[in-house]
Amino acid sequence: MAPYTSLASSSHDVELGHPEAKARGDLRISPPQGLRRASSLKRRQQERTRRFAVGGGVAAALVLLLWTFTGGRREERREVFGPPPSLVRVGARAGTAPNATTLLTSAAPARSYHDALRPDLRYLTLDTWSGWSGQFLTVLSQLYLAHLTQRVAIIPSFRDADHYGDAMITADLLMDFGKYRREHGALFVFWDEVKPLDRAHATTERDAIGCYMGVNSFEGGRSFDEHNLDQTIWRVPRPGGHLQNSVEALTLFDYDDEDRLKRLRKFADKEGREIPPNMLDSQLLCYSSLWDLAHAGALTTGWAWYEGFRGQQREAGELKDMLALSARGTHPEWWAVGQYVDFAPGIWDIALNATHHTLGLDYVPKNLITIHLRRGDFKSWCSAGENCTPTVDRYIEKLEPLLDLSPPGTKILVTTDEQDDGDFLGAIDALGWYRVDHRALGTKAILDARYGEAAPWADAVVDQAILSLGAHFVGTSGSQVSLLTELRVAAWNGGETRLVERPS
């Protein structure tokens, strides 16, 4: 199937102030023809009266037309998509930001990772788990902690056979990490730049790599073995008691080599385990998982990463209300890193065209509200085993206060992973909401043509780009897609967000 094509438009459809109008330069207000300058006060007064009458009539007609076709208001267009402008722009100011050429030895990618790492630099790595959203969030945490501890992040390859088949990708296929590197001077490389994929363990050496327990109990990983890395997880307690999973505790654990090695050796003796070489020095530090970090201040007030996956912390208390979202202690990795990581241009191309076709417009309305109705495996994820997902009415309840913040005629754009429940989909359509129907749009064929075997990965990201267009957003609690969209709408568009809780 051919790629999407833009909707046809004519000069009569172009609104004043729109880029197309500015580029053409042929839309302007001209004075009525045939009017002659009057030589007397009476003639000038008569002429002014007639011109006001004519102009007022035309203006009234235009107002009536706009009111009829836009629900009583002129619809504003969104001209800018994605992250806020960077105030840093390190790469733009200083030239090319450091990359694998300068952050690794000339032997990279090497048969053993030991030969690829520069002895004068410190590195931080981890393996990833979960689907696209979980792995992306993990990388944001990794980049944030690497920045705080002055390390080079080695970003893992992404693999998830449960959802996306056997294809492996690097995160920069779908997100514009190159732009983030240029603008912020972030120091990172990808594992396939350090050591190539060797799924059969035939062309590289088997490297042992020891990883400290991260911020949750998950010990698995999806990609290290594909690089012929033999990972072991070490549950070495960090200082800080109940705050040992805070950003502050992780940072001090890194810098206090003496204390860390003392704790490591004590743990190894107790468990009768041999310590991998990378854990005996400070060059390569590895964690099992860093998904969703929090500062000590958030942890002491009772917030934890697993409590509803809420992107915008809304605890009671006047101080919390006064603090900016970025200062409330939750998701610091998002505010420091994630909000500046844009979608790759190819993802934007598909997402914007799908949005245009769904809305029947050749632009994106500025006051659009987006909704994410997560169903999928949630349909059986509750104690009852049935009726585990919210009804459409619950989303309407959360939507109403956002409509009060929006002008009349605001459009509602919906994405959902539900494809087969006709009653559910019909209930959405009956509301007059605009539902993105990828089957009707032929999105799969387009993704297959552009991304090949990695198309299922790209499919997971396109809807996130669409949802990020909302001036406000309603999502589903417990969904990482909704979490990321909450954060994007808050950071990119300054919007309000609401989450619908699932039945218990």
From TrEMBL:
Annotated region described as Disordered, given as residue ranges: 1-47
Residue spans of biased composition, Polar residues class: 1-11
Entry keyword set: Membrane, Transmembrane, Transmembrane helix
TM stretches of this protein: 52-69
Ranges of Basic and acidic residues composition bias in the record: 12-27
Protein name per its UniProtKB record: Uncharacterized protein
Lineage: Eukaryota, Fungi, Dikarya, Basidiomycota, Pucciniomycotina
